[in-house]
């Protein structure tokens, strides 16, 4: 404005022209102010949309794609899910009946679960309990508080903040290999604080112990996620496996987690780039104490309906040589009522590419998301074979229905085929033995590719 004042005072410019020019300048300044405000509003809408998307992703992880007609009792919302599985893969036959490896595959009930959500003013909470064939456990159970600035605190059994999202990079039913090493969708008992500062999303957490053990036949593995657990199996120096006896091993204690994710929304390809850090103690039972740590960098790139998620993690479990495994390169991890040895020192690269296609023109289908995923446990022990997992599939959504159709191909994932190189089934002996055994997430001595076609039918209510 000051720059044009000399022009207004110049000879030959009439008072009327001066007034018109001043009005025009005022109009331009007003338009500029409006444009600035629109830019501020657009940025706020973008940030709000990101927060809503993050909240929706967290809700999907906790509750599944439930329809709107949930049961409510005051501040409580009650829902659940019933899921069944069809499996066909490289599994040796088991007689003339249905088999996962032949005779048309195997159809079985996978899980039933009940969810409860609490929302009373600023008081919030979640509870989820699951039943599987022969065992059951508490999946989630916490109370929390929503602060006025959008922050939240959770106390109880909640999801550990590690990786780019609730399920790591994965969109598939199988997840990626992070999950099987306790580094994705992991529930532990402690306190978590979630907040944001500008474009940063921050999580701070302390966990006193791992997830509570449920009811099952295993020593300490009736749980949803993978934790380091004690067991009763021991291995002699000559490789002889001894079952039963006094429990040995470690239990997770005093774990610290930090995650920071930075959002870049004002670029051609919106990006979230972040890092996750984890450190904790291991309390020994008939063995010396130890510790464990993991560090990860991860990124999510969105372009239209495409989503690319990548992650690289380095983890180390520090334990001494012990009398029951005769090595410091393996520790037992357990979940789903079963435990096996995993490598104590490895890298985990993982990538997932997916596309969300909303099928508005199809009355019986809301959306479909095809995906391709790859992950690998790259073990630092030169005598161990890596554990790779490739998944091709799609997730189909309609109302309360959510169906996964996956073809998984793996060299080193016990849930994807159990056939050995000679065509026989992996045995408990070579799963537990660190000397001549398979132990897919540990030695992986079979070093053999298997496949599994899996269709998971889930109805969420």
Automatic annotation (TrEMBL):
Listed Low complexity bias regions: 49-58
Region (Disordered): 44-67
Protein name per the record: Carbohydrate porin
Organism: Thiohalocapsa halophila
